[in-house]
Amino acid sequence: MAAPSSTPALPAVPAPRPRSDWDAWGTRPATLPAGAKTLLATLLPGRAHPLSRVPAPRLSPSQLDDTDLDDLAALVGAEHATRDDVVRRRHLGGKSTPDLIRRRSPDVQAAPDAVVSPASHDEVRAVVDHCDRAGIAVVPFGGGTSVVGGVDPDRGSHAAVIALDLSRTAALLDLDRTSLLATLGAGTTGPQVEELLSAHGLTLGHFPQSFEFASIGGFAATRSSGQASRGYGRFDELVHALRVATPRGDLRLGRAQAGAAGPDLRELFLGSEGALGVLTEITVRVRPAPTATAYAAWSFPDFAAGAEALREATQRGIRPTVLRVSDTTETRVNAAMGGHLGRLGGCLAIMTAEGADDADAAATAGALDAVFAAHGAKTRGDAPARSWERTRFASPALRDTLLDSGVLVETLETATTWTHLAALKASVTAALTDALTAHGTKPVVMCHISHVYPAGASLYFTVACAMTSDPLAQWSSAKDAASRAIVTGAGTITHHHAVGRDHLPYLEAEIGPLGTDVLRAVKERLDPRGIMNPGVLVPADRR
Ligand SMILES: Cc1cc2nc3c(=O)[nH]c(=O)nc-3n(C[C@H](O)[C@H](O)[C@H](O)COP(=O)(O)OP(=O)(O)OC[C@H]3O[C@@H](n4cnc5c(N)ncnc54)[C@H](O)[C@@H]3O)c2cc1C
């Protein structure tokens, strides 16, 4: 890409972007693709419980008194501290399937008592100080795309809770072109980050499926992983420095490259999920935007062969940008749903590889091809990978359309070592299948390897089944069964969705009682009154 003719001035503020609808993913309903009807007939043998959207939800009344609202308004501007129901309903929580099901309930919806939107670190600092003094819980709210209950309006033991909406902090604050470091306001969303960086011929390369709405502060607070993680690294690997506002004071972490000044305190805040403080400014490693991309796909005879091929390629150091393989069920369902992927059998693997030029990108595809062929893979050209890239942000909106038809679709993820991968996949699949079958709704359980590392990989499950008349109980028992299979099967309770409130009951099985104590001690030191996101990372009732 040619260098821009003039360097845009900093700080630079991005164009505003539409937010996701309050009760769905995205901004407009998705149409089910061709082939979905056949799939629905298989999934819904005559007992659909469709769930409609609620046009005018009833919200819990605000518990924030006039004095506190006035005080907060004085800190951020009257129009940026509000108890208005239309604003509060955009902050009811995240976007898991249970969240979307709850939004369709005619019952009163638990809402934050106010939404407060600071525009800078100093305003965040002032709001946190006020809430600490007044005993008001604070839920940092980035894009609100959490799928683990991370942005639920939980008051804990406090009288009121605010959603601290960080969208007004969106900006490119600083750019060090020499070191390739960009400092961004925490509320900058994925597309805004790329817009701001592309003006300088740069990219961050972080593309989670929630890219369109999630924020850079949220990526850091949840240790997000993007679809291009093989090429660019997980989000935590992209973070150079952080500025944090905690109830006890401010921190600036990540002064120099590769410091050995004791334990790396950035790691305390990467994955801190708003429970320790507010990440206000994030300095990330950026790269020149890619100049060439190669696309390729293969079909493996089975998942074991695909996993083994990905392991070998990764351990040999072959580094495409995106690399993933679906199991046979997911490959078949995608083929039935899409039409794009034709009638592929076996297990589909796709790859994209960025390079300095076409030959460089093609060389990565060629290196993978050589490894994959030895594992029985057949090449499938570039169309499946191009099709995946074109449609990759569109599929989550189908969840809403499927709920309309009485189909529950939800995802969950884990990671483990290559040694335990096959057994973990089998046990989680069995747990989901058994739990949902016990409800009389035999599911379709699909899985793909979404992120690969030399020592292991992540497993991403998608589950679809007919919805019962109590879909929250239905999914809760399946999720519990899967989570138990994960923690007893050498998996992590989360590879990238984070802990939130939903995974908290399973965290101690992973980090042990001492690990839980360490987290509690850090929380007590930084947030002695427990105002920060009560119930996330540390149980609210144990403080
Ligand atoms: C359809 C869909 C697809 C998804 N795909 C992916 C994926 O591919 N990869 C992936 O990693 N995740 C994915 N997620 C999960 C989610 O998008 C990520 O967790 C994302 O990082 C959250 O960003 P956010 O800005 O929306 O954060 P929010 O949902 O607003 O917040 C998430 C957590 O971080 C805290 N938080 C947010 N901002 C700050 C801040 N500035 N300071 C301190 N704490 C903060 C919140 O309090 C909360 O605990 C997906 C979610 C959905 C709904």
From TrEMBL:
Stretches assigned to the FAD-binding PCMH-type domain: 108-289
Keywords annotated in UniProt: FAD, Flavoprotein, Oxidoreductase
Family: Belongs to the FAD-binding oxidoreductase/transferase type 4 family.
Name of the molecule in the record: FAD-binding oxidoreductase
InterPro entries xref list: Alkyl-DHAP_Synthase, FAD-bd_oxidored_4_C, FAD-bd_PCMH, FAD-bd_PCMH-like_sf, FAD-bd_PCMH_sub1, FAD-bd_PCMH_sub2, FAD-linked_Oxase-like_C, Oxid_FAD_bind_N
Alphabetized Pfam families for the sequence: FAD-oxidase_C, FAD_binding_4
Disordered: region residues: 1-29
Keyword Iron-sulfur among UniProt keywords: no
PROSITE patterns, per database record: FAD_PCMH (PS51387)
